[in-house]
Amino acid sequence: MIKPETVNQIFERAHIEDVVGDFVHLKKRGANLLGLCPFHNEKTPSFTVSPAKGLYKCFGCGKGGNSVGFIMEHEHLSYPEALKFLARKYQIEVEEKELSPEEKEVADERESLMLITELAMKFFQSSMKDTDEGRSIALSYFKERGMDEAMIDRFALGYCPEGPENSFHAEAIRKGYKTKHLITTGLVKEGRQSLFDFFHGRVIFPIRGISGRAVGFGARTLRSDKSIAKYFNSPESIIYNKSKVLFGLYESKSAIVKKDLCYIAEGYMDVISMHQAGVENVVASSGTSLTVDQVRLIRRYTPNVTLIYDNDGAGIKASFRGIDILLEEGMKVRAVSLPDGDDPDSLSQRLGPEGMQVYLLENAKDAFHFMSDILLEKAGKDPIERSRAIKEIVGSLALFSDRIERNLKTQDMALRLGVDQKTLNFEIAKAQRQVDSDRIKAQDRGRPIDSPPLPDTPPPLTEEEMERDMPIMNSLLDYNEQQEQERDIIRILLNHGDRRMTILFEEDEQGETEEEISVQQYIMDELCNERHITFKDALYGKIWALYQSAFIEERQLDVRHLERHPDPTINLMVAELTTERHVLHRWSDRKIYPKNETEQLQRMADEALNRLRLRTVMQMMKETEVAMQGSHDPGIQQEALERLAKLNTMKAKLSAYFGSVIVNL
Ligand code: ZN
Q1: Residues 518-529: tens digit of each pLDDT
Q2: How remote is the CA of residue 539 from the centroid of ligand 1, in Å?
Q3: In which residue ranges of the chain is pLDDT below 50?
Q4: 429 lies in a domain?
Q5: Distance 260 CA to ligand 1 centre (A)
Q6: Are residue 142 and residue 186 in the same domain, yes or no?
Q7: Whole domain around residue 527: which residue ranges?
Q8: CA 112 – ligand 1 centroid, Å
Q9: What are the b/e assignments for 312-347, b being 16+ CB within 10 Å?
Q10: Would you say residue 459 lies in a domain?
Q11: What separation in Å is there between the alpha carbon of 538 and the centre of ligand 1?
Q12: What is the number of structural domains in the chain?
């Protein structure tokens, strides 16, 4: 908990050219500085530093951000760690929030546990390499499984001796650690008469956090006795939350970024043997099925994920569940089917490094193809099983938050499943409403959202219809226009969000009342009630979501907070939108603004809002027209006509606002 005043002090002192200059040789080029990018290989410099904006940006690899972001990226640190790094450089005393005695005890305990796991990792490593017992039992086991020394070191693998003479707990107590803390880590247990090492006689897989420190362990027995659990894992503690850690992420993160892809496997050995086969972008969610927090951890490095789970009942179930969680978090998901009886470990040993890499590339399927292949094969010709399979796929399709992406995927799946697309779409809309209402319940505890009734998703097209309507479809898929409107809204929020304006509310009897609100509140109020308007651009959507959560918590979002957001793509966009000359949309050129500032602010906000609304209405009209032309069902025709009439009224109102009847956006 670093105090905000300290954070401000660090930002004020850490000039970007100075911070970057410690790592990159910079040369002056106009107002900017130029150097060779430290994040990708280049011979001609495309890495630019702007002292005026306080930002760096590489035009080769696209990386960019502020000074804290640079340190996070370059030194692989978390946000608070990077702040402390810079504080040390500028000799700023880091003022952390004063801890209460209870908080202090927790902090001390946390530090002790971290030191104990660190000591344990080293102890287990040396027990394997430097003792006869370790070499003959553990090291030979790993070597037999095809692991070389480099891999054993990379994953800091080790061995916990049988004891009692070489026990870990004796070592830790000699070093002064408290028995209480040793027991909390799960490494040591209390027996009838004495303490003993819980993992004794097992090989050890350290589970490391992002910074490389061990937070927990997996321990595998080498005995073939079936009555003993094959794996023991560390219990959860204040330093180890298994749903927030991924095995292999520390070792794989740079390869994940480089390949822009993350494989997810089931076990420790899968991850290590894939590394041994040269596939170094792989993690495992050991000891738990994939969680939302783990997915968010991966998303910091890449949006692309491929699941590699065993081809048995449990593995398939786990991969289906994983696909849903990943889709819900907006990830791009693929999955690989392994040959029967194989796991990534056995397969990579059988195929060798090159064979394994080729296998993964050739067999990674779109998640929906993966699901439908498995489900349809299982169902065979049984109609009940087939409909169950379709229901399952519908459930996953409904998780897409992007409507157009969902529509495309639905068309594809209708063909594959041999189902009428309209039926499929109807089922999805039903499932979607369920997902939506669950989401609202989860997000807006207590806050009623008064959303206007949405027209159902228009039915997707048949193949012939698609060919005929391709030009229209293409224009629907072109987000550029909408992006411009989204950009306007974000720009106004950033530049004028904190300015106050007086709004007149019309009331039935007393006439009008006045209320002073911020521009931010005004825009959020308007758009939060129109849930059919969604931000399509990923980055504007991200910034919008931050405003939305501030609005729901009834607080004002400060631009400075966004300028200093840990996500560098946000810093860059905010800098771009707040420094570029404020060019209003072409409509504004013809408008004469009233002199009164508050009216001017409201006018500006309304214009941007109405442009976004108009764009959405026009898009919905196009979609409805396409649907109507593609259907001979009188019910659908009638419904589409009614919807068009409604949309037309909205369009006319909005067009009137802009003072023209025909608007070509
Ligand atoms: Zn670069």
Answers
A1: 889 889 888 877
A2: 20
A3: 444-463, 465-479, 581-595, 660-665
A4: yes
A5: 15
A6: yes
A7: 469-658
A8: 39
A9: eeebbebbbebbbbbbbbbbebbbbbbeeebbbbbb
A10: no
A11: 22
A12: 4
